[in-house]
Amino acid sequence: MTMRAFSLEGKVAVVTGALGLLGRHHCEALSEAGANVVVCDLDGEKSQNLAQKLPVESMGAGMDVTAPGSIRTVLDQVLFKFGHVDVLINNAAINDMFETPALAAERSKFESYPLEMWQKLLDVNVTGVYLCSQIIGTQMAKQKKGSIINIASTYGIVAPDQSLYCSPEGQQLFYKSPAYPTTKGAVIAFTRFLAAYWGREGVRVNALSPGGVENGQERYFIAKYASKTPVGRMARPVDYKGAVVFLASDASSYMTGANMVVDGGWTVW
After folding, report:
1. Dist. CA 162–CA 175, nearest whole Å
2. What is the rounded distance in angstroms from the CA atom of residue 208 to the CA atom of residue 201?
3. In a domain, 269, yes or no
4. Residues 6+ away with beta carbon under 8 Å from 144
5. pTM of the predicted model over 0.90
6. Number of domains in the chain
7. In a domain, 146, yes or no
8. What percent of the chain has pLDDT over 70?
9. Rounded distance, CA 66 to CA 147, Å?
10. Bridge partners of 190?
11. Annotated catalytic sites, by residue?
């Protein structure tokens, strides 16, 4: 009985930002648990290619989370193919990218951080979560059942440690900008709002706050990050698969408005 509660067989799960490092693993986890996965990212063709590799029948779709018409089109396609939608993972997000490494430290400083970058992160990381939840979540509310999982971050809970971004020689290579932590904090607050708003409609809304994922960073960065976690390492992408299945499934049926922190203990200190 307990293990059956984790099954996603017969459920349809939409994942935004599905082609990213964690997005791919979210899709795999949901499919391995039995769900029909809707793989969504800006590149529709690559999304379809990933969907075809999943073990349970799935579909891929191009989606711009900042464009309401794009989201509605995908929802229509999902309802036409599967007839319902049960899970939404708001995973799409962007981080700061600086084209010129030599200027990264100056441009990422709060005092000189560009307004256009601030606005871009707000548009994708916050407004994108809002729009997908509004459009797809409304369908769940009509069905009287659904689970929304908003991917937040430890940086939505605690401030960035800027010393992580220093070279071994002590040079500040860049700063973690104000925009990313602000947007992830907003995602957590929005999660609580939506959980309270849709609780009586059968729609559960929770956040998942992952810690840093090892992904080809410099060795000194990996070592510094690992030294700040009780478990002594950065996350692997697969470390979040269990949490995703739990939040998507009936195993977490009495859980809403929570922020599930999976960070190797980063935020305990």
Report:
1. 6
2. 21
3. no
4. 201, 202
5. yes
6. 1
7. yes
8. 99
9. 21
10. none
11. 180
